Amino acid sequence: MTSALLCFQINLAQNNSKTDRIIDAGWKFQSQSELKLRPASVPGCVHLDLLNNQVINDPFYETNEEKQAWIEMENWEYLNTFSISPKEFKNEHIELQFDGLDTEADVYLNDSLIIDANNMFRTWKLDVKSLLKLGENNLLVRFFSPVKACSKKLKGYPHQLPAGCENVKVKVSPFIRKAAYHFGWDWGPRFVTSGIWRPVHLILWNNCQINSVHCQTIKQDEEKAKVKVSVELASTSSSGTIDLMINQQSRKVKLKKGSITIIDTLHYSAKDFWWPNGSGEQTLQNINVEIRNDNLTVDAQQIKFGVRTIDLIQKKDSIGTSFSFNINGIPTFMKGANYIPQDLFLPRVSPNDYEKLIMKAKKAHFNMIRVWGGGIYESDYFYDLCDKHGILIWQDFMFAGSMYPIDKAFTETVLEEVSDNVIRLRNHPSIAIWCGNNEIEVAWNNWGWQKQYGWDEEATDKLWNKYNMLFKSAIPQLLAIHAPEVPYVSTSPLSNWGQSANFNHSSMHYWGVWHGKEPFGNFKKNVPRFMVEYGFQSFPDSTTLSTVINPNNMYLKSDAMSKRQKSYIGNSLITKHSEELFGKANTFSEYIINSQRTQANAYAIAIKAHRLRKGHCMGTLFWQFNDCWQGPSWSVIDYNKKEKLAYEKVKELYQPVVAFIEIINDSIRVSVVSDLLIDTDVQLKLIGVGNKSNIDLWEQQTRIPANQMQVVLHEKIEKIRQSHINLNQMRIEMKTAEGFGSSDQIELNQ
Can you list the residues of the chain whose pLDDT is less than 50? Predict the structure, then answer.
């Protein structure tokens, strides 16, 4: 044995394994203008710290959004003192890691500037041993007002840029890598936060550690699959060996300074495959990776991995361009919704909040959620829950409704952001697609930005070229390195709803019903290949509103209530459609209920149309699933996790097997749609509904082929009615042996 190797082994034996120490206690904060230290929480944000110290009242109460706008204009400091013991100081490497700094911040350790942060979505890490002292060490994080910091950038930029839904005079959101919804959106308020919003770590290690583990299903047929496991190690030793264990299979690895990548292959059978909710079991494999020396664990990671393949099918066909997902080789109709962050103040979203919401998605038969590009890359726990319950993720990168100052510095921080989050998330079987941005390309081509913002030809060309460089070149090149197994599209949608022919092409955000003020019936006519967004607003339950609205202001036109409506046409459209369907409400409580009944009606029409065109349409994701505060929105779950009436309607219509009834010219057509991967026996009954009684008109038991839509009855209305001329409705009821049941009805005298 060489002396170098002996030294290496002794060093490892003395210091054992890598240690991760969380710095979460003892934090204080202050504004630079007041310089009064108060207790702070980390993870946290300044609004919550001010609230906990009783400096401000509930930000969501009444019109406090306006009263607390001063907070975004302040600079804030967070301070901590932590100790390093002699034993800890013996480690070769001591790294300081911030999982999330929101957003423009300087970090000082013992008065030395160590981090100049400019991106909420990045992880910031560096080795700080040379700056540490035995005993007490001082940590200072100085946050700069996002508005003031970006106003300086704005002044030096040659073009005005679109800025999402930011509704203030000086719009700065494109100039900062921060959650866009913090600057306001058409379903939420403006609270521009600052703070240490994710944990702070001290990571201590010696000689060798695991940098990352990447698991990929690389080959699969109906009976078996291979999983490629790539382990990247970081070593500071130029000689010696170490044992690498992958699921207890050991191999010797020769060390060298720098990065070392080892690749292994694991084998699985069909019973081990992971399937989305409604298609099969969510089987997760434990892939354990360890590095050991003399039977001592130096570092270890466990990956819970789902063995599955996913393919995005985009092919020219006889009518246009398809857009669909194959999971494990099986075409899968996607049912779900768009997800936004659950709060403006992210650190107070608890594990219980995540569990409640994902379980509601599962119970409503979702198999996909879109993590929208104006929010955040969600917590690890969110993706763990989606893995466990079979909810696939359409993952946007965090760009929405804006153009950006894509210079060298901006591109560098974005590519670090993309790398950090793709490497963090890529092993989750729930990750189904990466999407470059939300609505930028459709806006560029259809919203008149060029004229609105006065761009000349040179500016237009420069902005568009930079856009293409980032979303069609740089990001996909990174994905090809870090996660080549997951599909990527540059933007959503790929097709615009303005022309009827576009519904035959690719993905669609259909806002004709809402922004276009079209009738609900247009959901039937405008069915795309994959519907990524559509929706209709309603109010949350009165018990939810009562937590933030004074009883004296619980009416539609009060100042507090009217300012909670963030859509420019929200209350007028809700009122128009609800009164057409249910008449004028006598009380505000009745108005709320009618708004929810109206929303349920809209979603029912849309989902029925999408599912009846299975094959042409292969996905329906309504906008939106949840809320970030107590206000009117397109959600079916309000901020307090209370289900609106539309939730139950969606839950029924998203069942794996459903029956629908339609009038086609002078005939009745009954169809059964099945997303199950096995043939299914269904019991059907057609009922005539009269003024005084109901009449059984037709009954049949039939077998529906796996994963198909089948017409089970197509008959002239008069033949079915026979002598029952007083019927005004027909209703189809369906039951299956698996416990699914649905009901759908039509009006005969419309």
Answer: 1-15
- List the domains of the chain with CATH numbers: 13-202 (2.60.120.260), 207-305 (2.60.40.10), 310-535+600-653 (3.20.20.80), 657-747 (2.60.40.10)
SS3 161: coil
Predicted local confidence at residue 374, as pLDDT: 98
Total residue count of the chain as it appears in this document:
750
| φ, ψ dihedrals at 505, nearest 5° | -130, 120
Strands (E), 275-415: 285-293, 296-305, 310-313, 324-327, 330-332, 334-339, 368-371, 392-396
Interatomic CA distance for residues 744 and 660, integer angstroms: 6
pLDDT at 295: 83
Output the six-digit token pair for 331: 């075409």
pLDDT at 238: 87
* pLDDT computed for residue 693 by the predictor: 82
Q: What angle is formed at CA 711 by the lines to CA 336 and CA 729, rounded to 5 degrees?
A: 85
Residue 6 has a pLDDT of 30
Q: Taking a C-beta distance cutoff of 8 angstroms, is the pair 131, 77 a contact?
A: no
Beta bridge partners of 662: 669
Residue with tokens 């994080």: 141
| Cβ 20 vs Cβ 8: under 8 Å | no
Residue 282 in contact with residue 387, Cβ under 8 Å? yes
Phi, psi (deg, nearest 5) at residue 157: -100, 135
**Residue 563 corresponds to which tokens in the numbers above?**
């300012």
Q: Would you state the structure tokens that stand for residue 444, as one six-digit string?
A: 């560029």
- Strand ranges of the sheet holding 368-371, from the earlier edge strand across to the other edge: 488-489, 431-435, 392-396, 368-371, 334-339, 619-622, 530-533, 507-509
**Count of beta carbons in the 10 Å neighbourhood of residue 41:** 17
CA distance 656 to 741: 10
**CA-derived radius of gyration, the chain:** 28
Q: Is the pTM of this model over 0.90?
A: yes
